[in-house]
Amino acid sequence: MASVYKQMEETGLKEGILFIDEINCASETLAPAMLQFLQYKTFGSHKIPDGWIIVAAGNPPEYNKSVREFDIVTLDRVKKIDVEEDYGIWKEYAVRENIHNAIISYLDIKKENFYCVKNTAEGKIFQTARGWEDLSRLMYVYEKLGKTVDFDVVYQYIQNKKVARDFASYIELYNKYKKDYSIPEILDGNFKNIYVDRLRTAGFDERLSVVGLLLGALNDRFREADFIDCRTELLQSYMKELKSQLLSQFAVDKHPEDIIVPFLDFKEAAFEKKIKNGIMKKEDEKTERIVLEMCDKFNIEIKKNGADSCEKAFDIIKELFSKEVSKRQEFIDKTSDNLSNVFEFMETAFGHSQEMIVFVTELNSGYYSIKFIDENGCTKFYQYNRDLLYKERQKNIINDIDDLRDMLW
Q1: Considering only CA atoms, which of 287, 280, 286, 317 is closest in space to residue 301?
Q2: Mind listing the pLDDT tens digit for each residue in 166-207?
Q3: Helix (H) or strand (E) run with residue 17 in it
Q4: What angle do the packed helices 193-201 and 310-350 form, to 10 degrees?
Q5: pLDDT > 70? residue 160
């Protein structure tokens, strides 16, 4: 309760959520107090401020031995939502959180292995969204260290021997396909006919895995493009603020450092305060931290060039910012070329097959991919997306006709 008031004091926020985890693990002696708390937002004589709501969560009994069932009196005073696993929803999150592409590619092929909790004669076996995410983090570390992710490693996180063994085998194939098909070459438009010939006779899993590898590589580019875009936009907003201060009447007789240093100190302090109060998203924190570092480098360049007036300092800042804008455009152009090259490869290898449908559908549903295409365009994507929508409408019309025929007969 005290944390709510502390948060309001430190941030100035008047509304929020008080989240209580594992609420169904509260002891029976606390039941009357919890009932009062959920219904009236009070705990003893302490009241939650207006504008704040309570959200609670708990696991079902098969997940946690400490759980007790809520009685009807308690359930009647809350809005109860049962949450079930959904790979499609989790995948959207996984792409944004940069879950390892091998995991996404594997689960695209074997969605049934995404989530399961069972009691067997040998004990509990399970694989969960949390397990896949934790495994993803370890896989990135192992790649940097040059270590192999084998069954023993996978089973630490995916505690279902059958699934763990299956995924460990898939990783071997995934790494083999990654090397055999030289994904960077395909992105650069230098693919060889041997790739195409092999794919035309390959099994469905191999074909879909290669599509997954291409999507993963493109998503890395799209994610980086989005980061560069956000970084440049934030830097631009900083530069606009600094420009108004450097070129104001107040700054006429001042040295550039008298304006720039306090400005950067203020931005740094505001940034640290947001982190301390926990009101910053992880990606926003990364973006702002880099922008502050860039501003420091700008200031160093101003000193190196011996700028002794605010006008000269701003000219240097303007030139440095222009270089950053050029870098952003170069990366966007390169990524657009990568996307076009992959479409060319997909057309050559698969034509208008099921693999192309999967590829376009994934581009159409990915957060970073659709954002990049919306902002920068892609002729091939629009063409195939239009064809897919047309075929889908045609299929729906045929189904409607069949339904009407059944009704009439």
Answers
A1: 317
A2: 999 999 999 999 888 989 999 999 887 888 888 888 988 899
A3: strand 16-20
A4: 50
A5: yes
